[in-house]
Amino acid sequence: MCKKFLKAALAVLATCLMLGGCSDNTTDPTSGFIEGEAEIQRSIEASRAAEQTASQESTSLESTSLEETSVDEDAEFLFDYVNGWEFCFCSGAGAWDTTLRVNKDGSFEGVFHDSDMGDSGEGYPNGTFYYSKFTGKFTDVEKVSKYVYEATVTDLTYENTPDEKEIIDEMLYVYSAAYGIADTEKVQFYLPGAQTDELPEGYMEWIRMLHFYAYVGSEFYRDIPEELPFCGLYNIDGEDGFYSYNNSGINRVYLTNKAAFPGLRNTRLDLNDDGTYYCVDKDEAGAYSVINMCFKPQKNLNAYSDTEEFVNHCIYNLMEGATFDDVYYLDYSYRDSTPDMIYLNGETTFMAGWRDGTDENSRYYVGRMMLDGDFAYVYAYSASHDDALMHGEAGSFFLSSLTRTADPGKISCANTEKLAHKITGIVIANGADPTSLLVDEVKWVTWGDKEMMEKYGLTDEDMTDDYAIVEDDGNYKVYQMSERCPIYVQFPEEGPFREFQTKAGFRQKLSGRTYGYLMELYLDENNVITYAYEPYTP
């Protein structure tokens, strides 16, 4: 039973967390599309079959008509905000959870259920079902900060008296308290946008492993957003953490990019009342652009025949009905080597590339798609046939820097710095100030480039791993980095994952190395670095 569940066991159960075991009313946006999940999901569903047939109303969260009372300004704002979100307390492993919904007057209703098919006896061969249907009210709301509110739990009542038992359809029903909410007087609500590094450790213990980790190969891939991308509810005394999915049809969560390509300007930003949006950022020449959009797909992910149908639906909406060709899909063979292209803050995304137009007039697109609650998100870049910046690794790294935000002002990734030229350099060390780097400019000659090989007197024997670095003479220059300069390191020390670096993080990596990074550096007209990434080297 879940009351015996130990938080310390979260790490042991981590491999199960991708299952997203929550209430039967909550749709897991990744369900059925993670390798091996279908078989595991069937076993979980089988273990729940008895409890589902025993009571069709066991997980019903229909609103009850509680008498409305006046609420103060903070409470009115809070309850209006969280109304329509379904809060769930679960581990992600096992068949237990507590779900509740909050009404605009602060009243709430919910259901707890757990089952133990092995705990059977005379008269109940189908096992034991722990169940609680409850109502209550949140009062005395106090605003702690912009995204944090505190409230008191009152009037907690039950449809069945806790600890009473009865046998229904050869299953023992044990009526229970509202697990996760019954053992506290005070709770805190966390709205989307709350800084995750400022939330209580007791809350983050539940949320980190359930939402922001993915088990990749033999290790975990962690992707914790700076801002909480959903509503949270925290039992202060019991240190129990609820999360939520937005079921209200009003979106308050947006995609954003931690990096910005140089030269992009926002050319379109449609923000709709329901939170859907369409944003386009382009460079002056129109060589490349970024589209960030959110729409309501009108059906959940499981309703699509397969992932390709979902992806094609996303592309169709992104292209606003225009034709597209040559669609290719990123399959799960990439999951272990590039998890940042599959997972976004713990949610599964799907990636595809496609083309629009023909020959020299063609443009190619690469995008990531995901479903979160009632909304589908698509983030894609588009580049012309002869564009150099977005081809290959640069564009892939850019797409790996996505995260979620509650601030619609961060939807655009426009960066007005102009791109002038590119150099290849070995970043030797940090400069004297936090925004500068010491760079030795070099030439990177690839095998088969006869003109460059002849210019520098290189033979085939000089081409180690099919390339050679020349003019690395140790003479360096000091280059400043722009305020929003994206930095990508291909193989960070933590594992084989591509990684977006902050300036502080990159400086720390440089200070611990005995050799530099070979980097592609994009400079503006003032020789300020506007974009830097480590290209693939064998």
Terminal CA distance: 52 Å
Helix content: 10-25%
Low-confidence stretches: 1-70
Q: Give the strand order, joined by hyphens, for the main sheet.
A: 1-2-3-4-5-8-11-12
The structure class reads: mainly beta
Tell me the number of structural domains.
Answer: 3
Count of DSSP-assigned helices: 7
How much strand content do the residues show?
35-45%
> What would the principal axes of the Cα set say about the shape?
elongated
Total DSSP E strands: 31
Key terms:
31 strands; eight-stranded antiparallel β-barrel; Protein Transport Mog1p, Chain A; mainly beta; eight-stranded mixed beta sheet; 36% strand; 538 residues
Summarize the structure.
The protein has 538 residues and is mainly beta. It has helices spanning 37-54, 73-82, 201-211, 307-318, 393-399, 450-455, 503-511, and strands at residues 85-89, 97-102, 107-116, 128-145, 148-158, 165-168, 171-175, 186-190, 213-216, 219-222, 232-235, 240-246, 254-257, 265-271, 277-282, 288-295, 325-329, 343-344, 347-348, 350-356, 363-372, 375-384, 402-405, 421-430, 436-446, 467-470, 477-480, 487-489, 499-501, 517-523, 529-533. Helices cover 14% and strands 36% of the residues.
What do these coordinates show?
The chain is mainly beta and 538 residues long. The protein has three domains: 7-49 and 59-104 and 140-156 and 184-246, no CATH class; 254-410, Mog1/PsbP, alpha/beta/alpha sandwich (Protein Transport Mog1p, Chain A); 421-533, no CATH class. The protein is 14% helix and 36% strand. Strands 1-2-3-4-5-8-11-12 form an eight-stranded antiparallel β-barrel. Strands 24, 25, 26, 27, 28, 29, 30 and 31 form an eight-stranded mixed beta sheet that branches. A seven-stranded antiparallel beta sheet has the order 14-15-16-22-21-20-17, with helices on both faces. A hairpin with a 5-residue loop joins strand 24 and strand 25 (436-446).
